[in-house]
């Protein structure tokens, strides 16, 4: 019988283990260590329910919940906050972010199970068949980021474990060839179709729109260009846009480039993604610190097109570099960006006070 699947998001391994032990009898359970890890696993795991800690590094639970709600497939998924924060303001913030339930730590495992069971009993979502079992997901994570990326892009239909088999020892009898059998030329081997070529996708993260415009112009048609204007937006965009190379400013609002780089390196999927720091802070100590937190290379501002392209070529020569198959094409991303921009403009317009017309003003003043 197929079980409901729950994604646990908590930066404390002991807490994740406790929750998993409580739920694993009746549910399939997959773990994530922070908001970045959770967002990167959404499409692979296909959860029916999410349990979120609030206090987490890089992206807290409320920010992660907001990001999950912006995902078109998971905007209605049930989310439970499980946190040591218990003030009225904390609960209000959690429910305001879209939580369906807020439980406080420490918690009794039996109470947690009862609340999860109640969710599925009162308003069960449709039971949908998953692309991958929990065991297959674990196996792909063990195989590395490329296996996970291929699965998320839909290019992996099944997961297999390769084992070496002993050579056959059963003797076989020789079969004499028929004397009258005509000899035929061997059939030509089928020619394999050339593998599709994909452009390298570059994510530029900078809070200066002029710098982003310059980078876009320098890259031209040689690369796919996507961008983010702050660290928090970058976390969400990295998981959805699947960049092959990241260009990262050191000083960003909401989260510094150093913090973001360090967190990416702690995530197995992004541990090997080339990260090029591009910063005006280019003293030796700045370069040294960037390399220490996980930068692949450093480019000082201002820079020329030739310098940028030279550094990108260097990134592509790094061991293990590969251009992965993407879930979304650059055309689909552009369409989604236009749609999101239109929706944002509509929300801003709706929030603005309606201007009073001269006729309405005359009627109001002469009542």
Description:
The chain has helices at residues 13-23, 35-45, 61-70, 88-96, 109-122, 134-143, 145-152, 209-219, 231-241, 257-266, 284-293, 305-316, 330-351, 358-365, and strands at residues 4-9, 27-32, 49-52, 78-83, 101-104, 201-205, 224-228, 245-248, 275-279, 297-300. The protein is of the alpha/beta class. It folds into 3 domains: 4-122, Rossmann fold; 201-316, Rossmann fold (3-Layer(aba) Sandwich), CATH 3.40.50.2300; 335-365, no CATH class. Strands 2-1-3-4-5 form a 5-stranded parallel β-sheet, sandwiched between helices. Helix 1 (13-23) packs across helix 5. The longest helix has 22 residues, at 330-351. The radius of gyration is 26 Å and the shape is globular. The termini are far apart. Residues 157-183 and 191-195 have low confidence and may be disordered.
Structural class: alpha/beta
Mean pLDDT over the full residue set: 84
- What would you say the CATH architecture of the largest domain is? 3-Layer(aba) Sandwich
Looking at how many chains there are and whether they match, the oligomeric state comes to single chain
The low-confidence parts are 157-183, 191-195
Fraction of residues in helices? Answer: 40-55%
Question: Quick one: how many beta strands?
Answer: 10
Biggest sheet, spatial arrangement of strands: 2-1-3-4-5
Q: What would you give as the CATH superfamily of the largest domain?
A: Response regulator
Q: What is the CATH first-level class name of the largest domain?
A: Alpha Beta
Label the overall shape: globular
Strand content: 5-15%
Radius of gyration: 26 Å
Count, helices:
14
Largest sheet: 5 strands, parallel
Q: At the third CATH level, what is the topology name of the largest domain?
A: Rossmann fold
Determine the N-to-C terminus distance: 71 Å
Number of separate domains = 3
